[in-house]
């Protein structure tokens, strides 16, 4: 009730402020691509969509994508430790591998849906589009509870460049630079950054992260060709064990990720476009946990390295059948490959070495129709995916949006989605017996929403959603007949339903204001074998808070100077103390982040390109645990400066 009262107060405040603006001033909804893969107005997209602008993130000093997503309705980010630790995303109560992550159209999830946000940064970003709800009909496996897509900036106009540097708490040092430009025939943007911190734990907690990215755009006659690339090199030293205890002096994880994309569109006629999307991603990872000293023989030690590759091609045609209708027909083929090698030793037992190498090919065909009739916009789409490991799976989605009044839109959607089994669940390893008969995990979902504009500027929306997850895959212990090697089976079921409330009021005077709240109810309806206490019949799914709230306010003092404040509340959520085999409830917490930038030209006109920056994360120095046993960093203060030639 308190959260609802806060939101109502915000709405009334926005209404009063917006009413003072000129009546002919209207802020249009952004055009989004990720929801349907063709441009549509955000208000009529099939699923709820949030757009985060890169320029806003840069002005607030937000450099990690996980921090940018933490305040989006329906999303919960959980980082297990210090900067660089594993960061998992839960969308609308789904599992942490239920969100498809794309960089310029290139899938970067591991096969089976897992993605670690620990080193994903906001470098060189134009925007982030967040789609909430099932979207396998557009993207195949993994898009069970949502899709997140990062778009690299396009280069246009005269050459411009920038450089940022800042440092502060925990030995943090960050530097970033880039250049962009273009003309009617070619455009480009290039960026690079380096960040490092000592971490907040007492030892072995360094995190290093280097990123390079770029986009090259060609626009020959009747065509557009985009080439994108992103390279990431991250090293994370962590002293914590599986329970969060700080005990290890030399454990380290290294990840090298390369992402390459091709997006080519040719206008065959005034009504027909042909589009080819090529994607390639590769993740090389290595972990090392050696004995802490020459005489240390009391624990588990190991080294492993792996390579995960995904390559795909997607060809489709978009046909505009009239002034207000588009039909898309397409096909997709993708090859996924996993290779790994690990060496392990437990205490004084002899060391062992295991290897794993498997691949699979996925194929799909799909169709989509989007149209508008009077005040009604509809989408109807279907897709069939096929692979040798889990067979054929069909998905569909239907939505309708109705403008019932000049400033009021109602929307509804129903659909299903799936997540393919991970490689280690389908194929046998040295420690498990793969189950080739596994079915994909699946969901059916529906949602209804209403959006109301206030004075043509502020937008108030409410979305109710209901999802049912089935065929959840769980590990099953083996016995003597299997040499005690376990396997995997489809056993679990759960439900997730909730309400998302959001208010957006950009450019109200000198303010940009925002607020949202999510009320979530998850329940396990079939615990299967319990998955080591993770699933309990009738109980909440772990690490999903019942309530979240986010408030933000940006004040523009001048065109290049602003201050920002963001408040985020995360409610109570269940977790598991696996050391003592008990279920625990983590307390709620509230975080305050402050940031600002001050253009020196306001006092010294000759210093126009130079701007001072500051950011304070967890300004109230809140002590909390996102995951049981893993403390979060305290107050973090970063100060610096940036210079821009020709704008950013």
Architecture overview:
This protein is mostly beta strands and 648 residues long. The chain has one domain (2-645): Beta Barrel (Maltoporin, Chain A). Helix content is 6%, strand content 58%. The chain contains 5 helices and 34 strands. The protein has a 22-stranded antiparallel barrel. Strand 21 and strand 22 form a beta hairpin. The longest helix has 18 residues, at 2-19. The radius of gyration is 25 Å and the shape is globular. The two termini are 42 Å apart. Residues 17-25 have low confidence and may be disordered.
Topology:
Blueprint: H1 2-19, E1 31-32, E2 40-41, E3 48-53, H2 54-60, H3 65-69, E4 75-79, E5 87-91, E6 99-103, E7 106-107, E8 125-132, H4 136-139, E9 146-152, E10 160-168, E11 172-182, E12 186-197, E13 207-218, E14 223-237, E15 252-267, E16 272-289, E17 300-322, E18 325-346, E19 352-373, E20 376-387, E21 391-405, E22 408-419, H5 423-426, E23 432-433, E24 441-454, E25 458-476, E26 486-508, E27 511-526, E28 547-558, E29 561-570, E30 573-577, E31 582-586, E32 589-599, E33 610-617, E34 636-645
Parallel strand pairs: 6-9, 23-26
Antiparallel strand pairs: 1-2, 3-8, 4-5, 6-7, 8-9, 10-11, 10-34, 11-12, 12-13, 13-14, 14-15, 15-16, 16-17, 17-18, 18-19, 19-20, 20-21, 21-22, 22-24, 24-25, 25-26, 26-27, 27-28, 28-29, 29-32, 30-31, 32-33, 33-34
